[in-house]
Amino acid sequence: xxxxxxxxxxxxxxxxxxxxxxxxxxxxxxxxxxxxxxxxxxxxxxxxxxxxxxxxxxxxxxxxxxxxxxxxxxxxxxxxxxxxxxxxxxxxxxxxxxxxxxxxxxxxxxxxxxxxxxxxxxxxxxxxxxxxxxxxxxxxxxxxxxxxxxxxxxxxxxxxxxxxxxxxxxxxxxxxxxxxxxxxxxxxxxxxxxxxxxxxxxxxxxxxxxxxxxxxxxxxxxxxxxxxxxxxxxxxxxxxxxxxxxxxxxxxxxxxxxxxxxxxxxxxxxxxxxxxxxxxxxxxxxxxxxxxxxxxxxxxxxxxxxxxxxxxxxxxxxxxxxxxxxxxxxxxxxxxxxxxxxxxxxxxxxxxxxxxxxxxxxxxxxxxxxxxx
Length: 373
Ligand code: BMP
Hints:
Elements: H1 12-17, H2 22-34, E1 38-41, H3 47-57, E2 63-66, H4 82-93, E3 96-103, H5 107-115, H6 121-124, E4 127-130, H7 137-153, E5 155-163, H8 185-190, H9 196-203, E6 210-218, E7 247-251, H10 263-275, E8 280-284, E9 298-301, H11 329-335, E10 340-343, H12 345-348, H13 353-372
Parallel strand pairs: 1-2, 1-10, 2-3, 3-4, 4-7, 7-8, 8-9, 9-10
Antiparallel strand pairs: 5-6
Helix pairs in contact: 3-4, 5-7, 11-13
Bound molecules: 6-hydroxyuridine-5'-phosphate (BMP).
6-hydroxyuridine-5'-phosphate binds at residues 41, 43, 67, 100, 254-256, 284, 302-303, 324, 342-346.
């Protein structure tokens, strides 16, 4: 880390002005507005707990980090499911949703995992991350997928299918197999367009009449503003709604003991970030990686914990016994130069998680203020 890099002493509000990604600009301004550089890692067991925690801790945080695949009862419905509900809470409290999916695969597979499948991550997560062990082309693949998605949401396709005489075997191809609005990979990336014949072919054995209606609806506002139920349209005051752009964080370093990510790998992340500034917001890392004069990437850092209230703050913090290592917000922000700290169990396992989130917010913000002073 270069101690003297300008991003280390510049206020977040100033960094917003030079941000190369609309979401980074937004996030820096949100951080100033809420006096928060705290990300809550909402690693709880059920969707109900997740939504309740997001609602209660929402005022203290600027990013909510999820692992959707560890949540039981995740409702995949794009309009009314868990992702859509989180999006409503994000708008209400002013935070961004970061799905910690750590994509790593060939570009084509990652494109599909990101934009399609059951979870349709891109629909509800403003930010995702990637491990680029597979090579830098994966970042380009994700950039292209996000650009196509954004193009597509400007012309929302509404398709309704009416079927007659359904019989039990119509559910053969999975619960979402008949979702007419789902992204077809061929449709997305090769110009393929589904038409009524496809639907007819799939339904041929089970329906007597199939009617497909498609309409194209132009929308100007962000995707997340759509499908809002009445009463759920509250937007956090003092800032506009988050842009509909999607952003990527590169997993450049990990917090774990014995992490195998080499300096060479981390340097490849830095190069990939600089080459894809329009989509890469920054890094999940353990230190600032801004070294070139105009680097202004955001650094979001897990492995953060505070000692219990009243205990010596600079003492040694125990890991979790499973490889996780912890540092205090003061060390990560002032010494290592990161911008946002990620806290999971430090908050979740506290007696009163919302007030513990507030304690972390204050400590992390104080560390930032002393860094830029
Ligand atoms: P906790 O604060 O409870 O240790 O949780 C840390 C969270 O950050 C977990 O969700 C974990 O998956 C994630 N994480 C991490 O701990 N270290 C990394 O290097 C990268 C991560 O995404």
